[in-house]
Design a protein that fits this description.
The structure holds two protein chains of two kinds.
Chain A (H helix, E strand, L loop, with lengths): L2 H16 L3 E6 L2 H4 L3 H15 L3 E6 L11 E4 L3 E3 L7 H6 L14 H5 L17 H5 L5 H9 L2 H11 L11 H10 L6 E6 L8 H8 L1 H15 L3 E6 L4 H16 L15 E6 L9 H8 L23 E5 H13 L1 H5 L9 E8 L5 E6 L4 H8 L9 E6 L5 E4 L9 H6 L8 E6 L4 H15 L5 H18 L5 H17 L3 H5 L2 H9 L1 H8 L22 H4 L1
Parallel strand pairs in A: 1-2, 5-6, 5-8, 6-7, 9-13
Antiparallel strand pairs in A: 1-3, 3-4, 9-10, 11-12, 11-13
Chain B lengths: L14 H11 L7 H12 L4 H11 L3 H10 L11 E6 L2 H5 L2 H12 L12 E6 L11 E3 L2 E3 L4 H12 L2
Parallel strand pairs in B: 1-2
Antiparallel strand pairs in B: 1-3, 3-4
Helix pairs in contact in B: 1-2, 2-3, 3-4, 6-7
GO molecular function, one term (chain B): oxidoreductase activity
Keywords (chain B): 2Fe-2S, Iron, Iron-sulfur, Metal-binding
Family (chain B): Belongs to the complex I 24 kDa subunit family.
Chain lengths: 553, 165
């Protein structure tokens, strides 16, 4: 496969598409499929046949706005229809070339106008099961350019210049990590893509894998060339069957096109990728646990160093990056590191994909430049809190993150800014809570999650999260005392400082951040025996606690 | 050292051939344990003792290690599933939208705690940690089919439909 051949494929796709007057894109991501967008596609295809119009119906990946699904985008008019049902198919086709159907039209300009799509540039616009659709949008150009015209060091230099940091949430500079693996000695090296998106409330990786799987494969292949690896693994959660199916299909197509396998781009570069299925363990998102899982063992972390970059899978140097990190690679190589570094904030470059969920009008997937404020994401892009309720908190970073109150909404989203206020960027889950959520209950929910997901290898995490859960349950049930609260704070510090891996080290974050910003809710539960949000079922028979004045202040 | 001969298939059930196929594809390597267990579970619905023994023996993995892996990962089940399965997502977005109440009402209706199957083997009640369809919370899977924005009434109606079949 050469660049010229890519051009030929792209040209033939364009010629094919030019035969049609209209392109009708139907979202077939998990969210819209659950609303039967597959039946909708069939109905649209039938309606096109019946009408005799020159229109093409295309299956695409996620268009982002899950709340308004099933979504249909009609090109070249760029008309977006929402909540489309199979019975609307005839009307949609009938309106082609005329005025759009007002009752179905989705008019959320501000939702889309604020976004900048890099990772999601093809999502919702190409058929995820057709490699040629990806090639027609400059796919695999970066890989062939890299293996033919760049040295591995040159590739790493571009990634370093881009300022890209790990999108799994850690924020480690990607160029630096690649450089370490490239320098590591060994005749066999591995590249692993971490698609174990265990954070409840996050679905960025699933969406990218379902909508544009080739982009991730291309990113991995470029990484393999840069660090000198010849074998790759994509570790995906078994809970994502559609992502696994589309990825399997994408790998087969890439091999057929000679973009994976031996002598890629007619050079001596060989690289192939296998899928490994996760089996439902949150801790496997931690890199050393993930490696153990690929080796077919229990997913328990190991102390670092040695880092996987030196000794990873089967003791060999291993590069591990998240799905979204790999999804950023091809555009960086295509447009240059400088282009990427021109977006974002001082120390967090580029864009970030967030999964907006919870008590917010426009739930779904958004991609925004780093540095944008939380307020813009929630109020403008997300459309604010629905049903006349008031905003209470936004939770970022999943079980490792924190809850931020309304007064923090004006901070710009970046790795460092979020850490400074007691949360983390995390992988990109963003859950909005309104006045009907009890923050103590939410803290308990997260600790319960960490408790059940703790692998049990180290005591601080195994026992600490269990004790924290017990204390929080007592507080939620109205049996808590002020001594419990002190003990809870103490436990948080112990678990944070002495746990073996990131799961335990960050498990106290939701508790600490709710204590920092919503301490009054804890006090209400303990001293006044009531739950302000009316969530907790507090037994009324408990006598009140006499609290010193300074606690209540 | 004598060449290793894999153990005979546990029965002439065709599904064992699929399981064997996964192991063969991976050269009967030890690291194929999780992959193989996935194949067993998708073929048989759960992992019973015979299956774990057979896989462990075939891959030359100590039985203790195989059992350790099975019990470590939530996805693997040691019990046969019911005829129907209701899986309620308890991820954060779904929790914020009240799936804890859905779980409680399903438990009450079926008279079993989550993770169990009704005595007649008809309905299993399961919870999932997050199925990644948070944009459609609260989410419930009915026999593996994803249903978004599930209401309590709708869920109970589905349980009724299964109960009277």
């Amino acid at each position: 496969m050469t660049i010229e051949e890519l051009d030929q494929i792209a040209e033939s796709v364009r010629t094919e598409n030019a035969k049609f007057d209209h392109e009708i894109n139907v979202c077939m991501g998990t969210g819209c499929l659950s609303q039967h967008s597959d039946k909708l596609r069939d109905a649209l295809t039938q309606a096109v046949t019946d009408s005799g119009k020159r229109a093409m119906v295309r299956r695409t990946g996620c268009m982002g706005l899950c709340a308004a699904g099933p979504l249909v985008l009609v090109d070249p008019e760029e008309t977006l229809y929402q909540h489309v049902k199979a019975e609307n198919a005839e009307a949609v086709i009938g309106s082609l070339g005329g005025a759009p159907i007002a009752s179905l039209q989705c008019d959320l300009r501000e939702h889309f106008d604020q976004q900048v799509h890099v990772v999601l540039e093809n999502s919702g616009q190409i058929d995820p099961e057709k490699i040629d659709d990806y090639i027609a949008r400059d796919g695999y150009r970066a890989l062939l350019t890299a293996v033919n015209d760049m040295t591995p060091n040159g590739v790493i230099h571009q990634i370093t210049a881009s300022g890209l940091r790990g999108r799994g949430g850690g924020g480690y500079p990607t160029g630096l990590k690649w450089g370490t693996v490239a320098k590591a000695s060994g005749d066999m090296k591995y590249v692993i893509c971490n698609g174990d998106e265990g954070d409840p409330g996050a679905f960025m990786d699933r969406s990218v894998l379902e909508s544009d799987p080739q982009r991730v494969i291309e990113g991995m292949a470029i990484a393999a060339y840069a660090v000198g690896a010849s074998k790759g693994y994509i570790y995906v959660r078994a809970e994502y069957p559609l992502a696994v199916a589309r990825l399997t299909n994408a790998l087969r197509d890439a091999r057929r096109r000679g973009l994976l396998g031996n002598n890629i781009g007619n050079t001596s570069f060989n690289f192939d990728v296998e899928i490994r299925l996760g089996a439902g363990a949150f801790v496997c998102g931690e890199e050393t646990a993930l490696i153990a899982s690929i080796e077919g063992k229990r997913g328990t972390p190991k102390p670092r160093p040695p880092y996987p970059a030196v000794s990873g899978l089967w003791g060999r140097p291993t590069l591990i990056n998240n799905v979204e990190t790999f999804a950023n690679i091809a555009p960086i190589i295509r447009k240059g590191g400088k282009w990427f570094a021109s977006m974002g904030s001082a120390r967090s470059k580029g864009t970030k994909v967030f999964a907006l969920t919870g008590k917010i009008t426009n739930t779904g997937l958004v991609e925004v430049p780093m540095g944008i404020t939380l307020r813009e994401i929630i109020e403008v892009i997300g459309g604010g809190v629905p049903d006349g309720h008031t905003f209470k908190a936004v939770q970022t970073g999943g079980p490792s993150g924190g809850c931020l109150p309304a007064e923090m909404l004006d901070i710009g989203v970046s790795y460092d800014a979020l850490v400074a206020v007691g949360s983390i960027m995390g992988s990109g889950g963003m859950i909005v809570m309104d006045d009907t959520s009890c923050m103590v209950n939410v803290a308990r929910f997260f600790i319960e999650f960490c408790m059940t997901e703790s692998c049990g290898k180290c005591i601080p995490c195994r026992a600490g999260t269990a004790q924290m859960h017990t204390l929080l349950t007592r507080i939620c049930e109205g049996h808590g005392t002020l001594a419990d609260l002190e003990l809870l704070v103490e436990l948080c510090a112990t678990v944070k400082e002495t746990s073996l891996c990131g799961l335990g080290q960050t498990a106290p974050n939701p508790v600490l951040s709710t204590l920092r910003y919503f301490k009054n809710e804890y006090i209400e539960h303990i001293v006044h025996k009531r739950c302000p949000a009316g969530v907790c079922n507090i037994a009324g028979a408990v006598e009140k606690v006499n609290a010193p004045a300074e606690v209540l202040a | 050292m004598p060449a290793f001969t894999p153990p005979p298939l546990p029965s002439d059930d065709k599904r064992w051939k699929i399981v064997n196929g996964t192991m063969r594809k991976n050269g009967f390597a030890r690291h194929a344990l999780i992959e193989t267990l996935h194949t067993v579970q998708s073929a048989f619905g759960y992992l019973d003792d015979d299956a774990i023994r057979f896989v462990a023996k075939s891959l030359r993995v100590p039985l203790s290690q195989a059992y350790g892996v099975v019990t470590f990962y939530h996805y693997f089940s040691l019990k046969p599933p019911g005829k129907h399965t209701m899986t309620i997502c308890t991820g954060t977005a779904c929790y914020i939208k009240g799936t804890d109440k859905l779980v409680a009402s399903a438990e009450k209706r079926l008279g079993i705690p989550q993770g169990q199957t009704t005595k007649d083997g008809n309905i299993s009640l399961m919870t999932a940690r997050c199925v990644g369809a948070c944009g459609r919370a609260p989410v419930v899977l009915t026999d593996g089919e994803l249903q978004g924005q599930m209401s309590g009434e709708e869920m109970l109606a589905q349980l009724e439909r299964w109960a009277v079949e």
